[in-house]
Amino acid sequence: MSADGRPESRPSGSAERPRGWVTWPPRRTAAARPALPPAASSWAGPVLVIGALVSIGVFGGVWVLAVVCALIVIVVLHELGHFLTARWAGMKVSEFYVGFGPRLWSVRRGETSYGVRAVLAGAYVRILGMNNLEKVDPAEEHRTYRSKPYWRRMSVAVAGSAMHFLLAVVLLWVLYSAVGFHGFDRPDATETPLWQVSRVVPDSPAEAMGLLPGDRISSVAGRGIENFGDLRGALADLAHRPATVTVVRDGETVRLEGVIGASPRDGASGFLGVGPELAPAARANVISGFTSAVRDFGLVVRASAEGIAGLFSLQGLDGLLGPLVDFERDEAVTGEAVGGDPNRVVSVVGVARIGGSLAQADVTALINFLAYLNVFFGVLNLFPLLPLDGGHVVIATYERLRSFGGRRYQADVAKMLPAAYVFVIVLVTVGLVALSRDIVDPFSLPG
């Protein structure tokens, strides 16, 4: 008791308490959580990533794992292009990560943190002041992306796509000049004379008729066939119609009867289900191989641009969502899944499966596929909307055109955000739909 008769107040944490003093509610001491040793903690992330890759190899196969690793390398090289050009321009790069989501492993070298995150669905580099809305310490403003000259910003913005294009040309060059390419010395393999059937597609009209590998098709519905191109022309208007296919088998003429099918590509032209025997793989010299690589690169860029433009049209979106939702009946399709559409959008799962199938059939086909994939990624990233690289190209160019008399104009990026949000929603929707189709209705290559 104090001198004035009131009980003495004691600090709550005081050890001097009257006998019989009971604290209520009783205090609970937090149990110490077992912590991983620093060494184990630093290795846990890489072990999880390696375990995930091993699982892909076990369940998907070695070639699917190889394609997944190739995709990771392609994405990392894309970001490496941004990283190197940003460092070369004197910009501050604070992060270089593979994947998104929770951090699994990281290490800091200088001012940059390098690491791996849980979802290996991409990569990114964080460049200081990449847009005009980011708040930056005035002492570091001179090292921001937005403070650099136009040509510096452009070099960083297009570096990722430039890396894809460079990889595509190199892959095609290696394919033509080092590995060898079927029919390289004959630009149109369909015009190869005296060809014969090398494979018959399972469950195809050709199999139903009784065609065999080694057969030489001489006529279809009375129309003479001299090369594989003639066969395509003869089948063009025979979909769902009975026809006679005449073949030369072991020196004897054999007449086969059956119904011509419809092409999975358009559902209208005729489809038989045979593949031609290709000419032996041939290598070009270094000069002609490079020339052909550049020529074919240009053709693929054009095709990729047209494909991407078509995807974001109403017809393209209908083609993507059509197999999931029947717009005419306004109800979910519950019948047989439609497979084999070569124009469908595929997710990373579909890309890995297609690449794995191509690799099992022919390594040259895999190299070709990876080259075309790089072109597609490069063109897609130049689409002129944020958050893609093309959006930064448009902003930098617009600012350059609005800058006069040495006065630097800065665009109001906030006005572009609504369009960017809509675009991201469209991309995510397309990705999720493609992923669901690749899981429910896996893409299979004909033959």
Oligomer type: single chain
Unreliable spans? 9-25, 183-191, 314-340
Work out the radius of gyration. 31 Å
Number of strands: 14
Largest sheet, strands/sense/barrel: 4 strands, antiparallel
Structural topology:
Blueprint: H1 38-60, H2 62-88, E1 93-109, E2 112-127, H3 150-179, E3 181-182, E4 197-200, H4 205-209, E5 216-220, E6 223-224, H5 228-235, E7 242-249, E8 252-259, E9 261-262, E10 270-271, E11 274-276, E12 281-282, H6 286-311, H7 314-321, E13 325-326, E14 331-332, H8 348-361, H9 363-381, H10 389-402, H11 417-440
Antiparallel strand pairs: 1-2, 3-12, 4-11, 5-6, 5-7, 7-8, 9-10, 13-14
Helix pairs in contact: 1-2, 2-3, 2-8, 3-6, 3-9, 3-10, 6-9, 8-9
